[in-house]
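Support request, please re-run this one:
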Amino acid sequence: MREESVLHHDRKRRFEVTYVANYADILAYVRRRTDSHEDAADALAETFATAWRRLDGIPEGGDARLWLFGVARRVLANGRRAESRRSELVERFGRQLAVWAEHTEAGRLRQEGPDHARQAGRAR
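Re-run finished. Output below.
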Protein backbone atom coordinates (compact mmCIF):
# COMPACT_ATOMS: atom_id res chain seq x y z
CA MET A 1 0.00 0.00 0.00
CA ARG A 2 2.84 2.38 0.86
CA GLU A 3 4.43 1.82 -2.55
CA GLU A 4 1.17 2.77 -4.34
CA SER A 5 1.00 5.97 -2.31
CA VAL A 6 4.56 6.87 -3.29
CA LEU A 7 3.84 6.15 -6.97
CA HIS A 8 0.70 8.27 -6.86
CA HIS A 9 2.64 11.10 -5.19
CA ASP A 10 5.37 10.84 -7.84
CA ARG A 11 2.78 10.97 -10.65
CA LYS A 12 1.04 13.91 -9.04
CA ARG A 13 4.33 15.74 -8.56
CA ARG A 14 5.38 15.08 -12.17
CA PHE A 15 2.06 16.43 -13.42
CA GLU A 16 2.33 19.53 -11.22
CA VAL A 17 5.84 20.26 -12.50
CA THR A 18 4.72 19.83 -16.12
CA TYR A 19 1.61 21.95 -15.52
CA VAL A 20 3.41 24.84 -13.84
CA ALA A 21 6.21 24.87 -16.41
CA ASN A 22 3.86 24.95 -19.41
CA TYR A 23 0.55 26.48 -18.31
CA ALA A 24 1.18 30.06 -19.50
CA ASP A 25 2.51 29.04 -22.93
CA ILE A 26 -0.32 26.59 -23.60
CA LEU A 27 -2.90 29.14 -22.43
CA ALA A 28 -1.45 31.78 -24.77
CA TYR A 29 -1.49 29.27 -27.63
CA VAL A 30 -5.15 28.27 -27.18
CA ARG A 31 -6.24 31.85 -26.43
CA ARG A 32 -4.86 33.06 -29.76
CA ARG A 33 -6.82 30.34 -31.53
CA THR A 34 -10.21 30.64 -29.83
CA ASP A 35 -12.96 33.24 -29.93
CA SER A 36 -13.61 33.54 -26.21
CA HIS A 37 -11.97 33.14 -22.84
CA GLU A 38 -14.42 30.32 -22.07
CA ASP A 39 -13.39 28.37 -25.18
CA ALA A 40 -9.73 28.89 -24.28
CA ALA A 41 -10.36 27.66 -20.74
CA ASP A 42 -12.16 24.57 -22.07
CA ALA A 43 -9.34 23.78 -24.49
CA LEU A 44 -6.72 24.32 -21.78
CA ALA A 45 -8.60 22.07 -19.35
CA GLU A 46 -8.98 19.33 -21.97
CA THR A 47 -5.29 19.58 -22.85
CA PHE A 48 -4.18 19.09 -19.25
CA ALA A 49 -6.82 16.42 -18.60
CA THR A 50 -5.30 14.49 -21.49
CA ALA A 51 -1.85 15.08 -20.00
CA TRP A 52 -3.01 13.62 -16.67
CA ARG A 53 -4.57 10.56 -18.35
CA ARG A 54 -1.48 9.96 -20.49
CA LEU A 55 1.11 11.09 -17.97
CA ASP A 56 3.29 8.03 -18.52
CA GLY A 57 3.46 8.87 -22.24
CA ILE A 58 4.65 12.45 -21.82
CA PRO A 59 8.29 12.83 -22.83
CA GLU A 60 10.78 14.12 -20.29
CA GLY A 61 12.21 17.62 -20.20
CA GLY A 62 11.58 20.17 -22.94
CA ASP A 63 9.89 17.59 -25.15
CA ALA A 64 6.94 17.66 -22.73
CA ARG A 65 6.19 21.19 -23.88
CA LEU A 66 6.11 20.13 -27.54
CA TRP A 67 3.92 17.17 -26.63
CA LEU A 68 1.45 19.50 -24.87
CA PHE A 69 1.32 21.84 -27.87
CA GLY A 70 0.47 18.83 -30.04
CA VAL A 71 -2.31 17.82 -27.65
CA ALA A 72 -3.65 21.40 -27.59
CA ARG A 73 -3.62 21.54 -31.40
CA ARG A 74 -5.68 18.33 -31.59
CA VAL A 75 -8.07 19.54 -28.88
CA LEU A 76 -8.67 22.74 -30.86
CA ALA A 77 -9.16 20.83 -34.11
CA ASN A 78 -11.67 18.52 -32.43
CA GLY A 79 -13.52 21.55 -31.08
CA ARG A 80 -13.71 23.14 -34.54
CA ARG A 81 -15.02 19.90 -36.06
CA ALA A 82 -17.64 19.58 -33.31
CA GLU A 83 -18.77 23.19 -33.83
CA SER A 84 -19.00 22.63 -37.58
CA ARG A 85 -21.13 19.51 -37.04
CA ARG A 86 -23.41 21.41 -34.64
CA SER A 87 -23.85 24.26 -37.14
CA GLU A 88 -24.66 21.84 -39.96
CA LEU A 89 -27.16 20.04 -37.75
CA VAL A 90 -28.89 23.29 -36.77
CA GLU A 91 -29.16 24.29 -40.43
CA ARG A 92 -30.54 20.87 -41.40
CA PHE A 93 -33.11 20.94 -38.60
CA GLY A 94 -34.11 24.47 -39.59
CA ARG A 95 -34.78 23.34 -43.16
CA GLN A 96 -36.71 20.30 -41.96
CA LEU A 97 -38.82 22.41 -39.59
CA ALA A 98 -39.62 24.86 -42.38
CA VAL A 99 -40.83 22.01 -44.60
CA TRP A 100 -42.81 20.53 -41.72
CA ALA A 101 -44.40 23.91 -40.97
CA GLU A 102 -45.41 24.34 -44.63
CA HIS A 103 -46.99 20.88 -44.73
CA THR A 104 -48.72 21.40 -41.40
CA GLU A 105 -50.13 24.77 -42.47
CA ALA A 106 -51.24 23.42 -45.86
CA GLY A 107 -52.91 20.42 -44.20
CA ARG A 108 -54.67 22.61 -41.68
CA LEU A 109 -55.99 24.90 -44.40
CA ARG A 110 -57.25 21.92 -46.44
CA GLN A 111 -59.10 20.56 -43.40
CA GLU A 112 -60.69 23.90 -42.58
CA GLY A 113 -61.94 24.42 -46.12
CA PRO A 114 -61.50 27.03 -48.85
CA ASP A 115 -63.32 29.83 -47.01
CA HIS A 116 -60.95 29.66 -44.06
CA ALA A 117 -57.94 29.51 -46.41
CA ARG A 118 -59.07 32.74 -48.11
CA GLN A 119 -59.54 34.42 -44.71
CA ALA A 120 -56.13 33.25 -43.54
CA GLY A 121 -54.60 34.63 -46.74
CA ARG A 122 -56.23 38.01 -46.18
CA ALA A 123 -55.08 38.12 -42.53
CA ARG A 124 -51.43 37.94 -43.54
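Residues 63-112 form the longest helix (50 residues). The two ends are 77 Å apart (CA to CA).
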